[in-house]
Amino acid sequence: MVVSKFMKDKMISFGFSTNNIEIDKPKIDPQFKNFKWDRPIDVLYLGGQKEYKGYKLFLAAKKRMKNIKILGIYNVPFQKMVEIYNKSKVLLVPSLWEEPLGLVSLEAKACGCKVVASNIGGLPETHPDYLFEPGNVTEMIMKINEALKSYN
Fold first, then answer.
1. What is the pLDDT along the chain (152 residues), one digit of tens a residue?
2. How far apart are CA 61 and CA 139, in angstroms?
3. Residue of 99, 117, 110, 137 lying closest to 44 (CA atoms)
């Protein structure tokens, strides 16, 4: 069992038989829903301070987008995630590594966030609203701006 087509293709590239690999995408907890609250946070980042999660890209966006409220949160308890997503307009997922799927993208979308994500690994399978080339800060900021404009 794998969580995405990306992971299935990866397993096949390692020599596993296609007959032995099934895709079982994770189900989103029903708590993750859009409460249509006011959204004071423009951009939310949850990847921690890990470079492979795109931390430096998050910092670059924060530095270059001074008029935007950008919040980075780390180690958030599960029970607070619904509230945080519902207070955010855009979730930024700037991963540099090949995420197997990107559960945060699915959770954030269920709560009404626009998702701006790197076009890498299994992230495109979560149907983000905007994709950008991994590591491309200029394109990422352009996509964040597009997401914010479309939100209003």
1. 999 999 999 999 999 998 889 999 999 999 999 999 999 999 999 999 999 999 999 999 999 998 999 999 888 888 899 999 999 999 999 999 999 999 999 999 999 999 999 999 999 999 999 999 999 999 999 999 999 999 76
2. 11
3. 117
Is the four-CA dihedral 128, 91, 112, 7 of positive or negative sign?
positive
User: Which of 110, 149, 130 has its CA nearest to residue 26?
Assistant: 110
Closest alpha carbon to 113 in 82, 86, 94: 86
- The H helix count followed by the E strand count for the chain is 5, 5
Tell me if the pTM is above 0.85: yes
DSSP summary character for residue 96: S
Closest listed residue to residue 107, CA positions, set 148, 46, 62: 46
Helix H, strand E, coil C: the string for 50-67 is CHHHCHHHHHHHHHHCCC
Give dist(CA 25, CA 1) in Å, integer: 9
How is residue 30 annotated by DSSP?
Answer: T
Distance CA 70, CA 147 (A): 13
